[in-house]
Amino acid sequence: MSIDAISGARTTSSSANRLVAEEDASLVAAAKARDARAFELLVKRHERKIFSMAHRITRNREDAEDVVQQSFHKAFIHLKRFEGKSLFHTWLTRIAINEALMLLRRNRGLQEVPIKESSTKPEGALPLDFLDSAPNPEASCLDREQEQILSAALNKLRPGVRKAIELRELGELSTRETALVMGLSVAAVKGRVFHGRRKLREILSQSPKASKSERPQMSSHVRILGIAGSLRCGSYNQGALRAAKLLVPENSEIDLFQLDDIPMFNEDDEKRPPSSVVELKKRIRRADALLIVTPEYHYSIPGVLKNALDWACRPYGDSAWSGKAAAIMGASLGAIGTARAQYHLRQILVALNLFTLNQPEVVIANAAHRFDENGNLIHEPTKQLIRELLKNLVDWTRRISPALAREARS
Question: Is the four-CA dihedral 331, 335, 338, 343 of positive or negative sign?
């Protein structure tokens, strides 16, 4: 069948399903032969259905449009792998569902805050006092706990039943769409969903909440791991970290970790990391909170610090950072005092799922006048600011760890 005939045909009537499949097969063959027009026709024939499906999952028009674009992009790149064992629409739908679910995972917890324009404000001034509509840290911990319980329950289902539940309930596809994606009859999908729901109810009724043995056991004594992103012997940031060790509030302590022995990250070695990386991840997991002290190199953090951050979050699914409370500070010779590096570091810590303390911001400017010749902090206002930072970090750690907070009150 020629492409001109396909482009002029009406393919949306209910009686044309078989013809649509044949036409799709012809277009796929032409697209594999590098006919760009053939793939454009495939896009036109399927983009509306793919958009509708993506919109039901993401519930956002802009996100759905992104899913459509990314899905067709992946389909074009991997078209030669399509062997025609299923309908092209089924293959494309599977790609789109995966893209939509990945987008939801990436966007989880992110919120857009509109900034209203005002003609009464001077140019360049923007309102920065935003109301935080996100759940509080304790609610976030409980949400994560419930997600872990549900995920564990899903993993106990047989693979075919679990896939049906994920597509029908989590992906919010219709029974017919789920059947199309799985290559099953509608009756088979209904049966799997029915048995899956019943089994989930049984599993969840036996574990309505995580037992104490499943929760991290943390004492009311807050353990902070301190890391400085500088290897220099006379480093002001190392000096600031040493000062912090002496300024911690009661019922807390700072344990220092040096990055000297951490090699450059190599993904080939992430499943068999060197002993220094194993020790770093062990110390992070043992700590209740983190204090990261960074110099500023070219508006950003040093490579040695970024390298350690990368090592301790790999391999995928085995991050030692995730869920920890954190505070940051830094010292430099200039007047800005590592402010730009700290803001960049905050962005990185978001990706690592660390709960970073916002106030106070400890940016130690003109460091040569605040440390003595031995690298010891001698500036009393800076010491007081570090005391406040550490007190807030301890309080913040107890807030985002309900177990720790309960033990502190007992």
Answer: positive
